[in-house]
Amino acid sequence: MSVSIEPVGVIHSPYKEKFAVPRQPGLVPSARAEIVLQGDANTAEAVRGLEQFSHLWLLFLFDQNLEAGWRPTVRPPRLGGNERIGVFASRATFRPNGIGMSAVELKGVRQQNGNVIIELGGVDLVDGTPIVDIKPYIPYSDSLSNAQGGFAASEPQTLPVIFSDSAVKQLQKGQAAYHQAVISEVLAQDPRPAYKKGKADNKQYAVHLFNYNVRFSVSFDAITVIALEPIDDESFGE
Questions:
Q1: Which residues share a beta bridge with 162?
Q2: How far apart are CA 229 and CA 213, in angstroms?
Q3: Pick from 14, 16, 18, 15: nearest CA to 193
Q4: Helix H segments across 18-146?
């Protein structure tokens, strides 16, 4: 049986590329995002009553990975990127149908220029990700106190993030505090490849967040933001 799925909306987030996107929702609580509904789903009737809930389940497509296909085993970063487990025992992005799910905070719903927009917090989705369904998070059934988390039973360790004086000066006025908070929470996860976790190296890294090219380095005990180079694009939150 073949099933065709039409996205109900698209997300706009600070994450302009896959690198450094939080590996789970809620790890960057300061990050704000929006879903703009589209097609037949773009109607106020579709979100009537939604604001009764504090959190939502988002079902989405790993659209940047679909053409690459999938394999039955993967190497989760939480296991150091070396040990293989079954794809269905992971939340890997390369999956048979390329479908992901995230529990995110609902901040509000508004209408703007003929579009229904759902405001979110704590997202882990790349800017432009297609959303295929939205469901309310139901605490009594969705939060299971006796659940076991396997190899991901605890939250990942984080590193302190330090901004150089020049990087602080490059933060955009009016959004400086928000941008600095999100960048700090993203980099604190140490987004480098799993085999480099817990290690210092001499390499400089860069990631596209908001409309910055964020250059940073990693030592054993901290991450330093070296520079925030402006990128001329239309980014969420500007």
A1: 224
A2: 5
A3: 18
A4: 139-142
For residue 37, the SS3 value is strand
Q: Are 33 and 75 in contact (CB under 8 A)?
A: no
Give the CA dihedral 127, 133, 136, 139, nearest 10 degrees: -80
- Residue 91 makes CB contacts below 8 A (sequence gap 6+) with 23, 24, 100
Which of 142, 127, 102 is CA-nearest to residue 207?
Answer: 127
- Please enumerate in sequence order all residues whose Cβ is within 8 A of that of 211, keeping only pairs 6 or more positions apart, or say none: 230, 231, 232, 233, 235, 238
Q: What is the pLDDT of residues 28-75, one digit of tens each?
A: 999 999 999 999 999 999 999 999 999 999 999 998 877 788 889 998
Query: Do the beta carbons of residue 98 and residue 63 sit within 8 Å?
Result: yes
Greatest Cα pair distance in the chain: 58
pTM of the model: 0.89
CA distance 12 to 23: 17
Contact 61, 100 (CB under 8 A): yes
- Structure-block tokens of residue 87: 């794809």
Q: What are phi and psi of 186, to 5 degrees?
A: -70, -50
User: What single-letter amino acid sits at 171?
Assistant: L
Structure tokens at 3: 């099933």
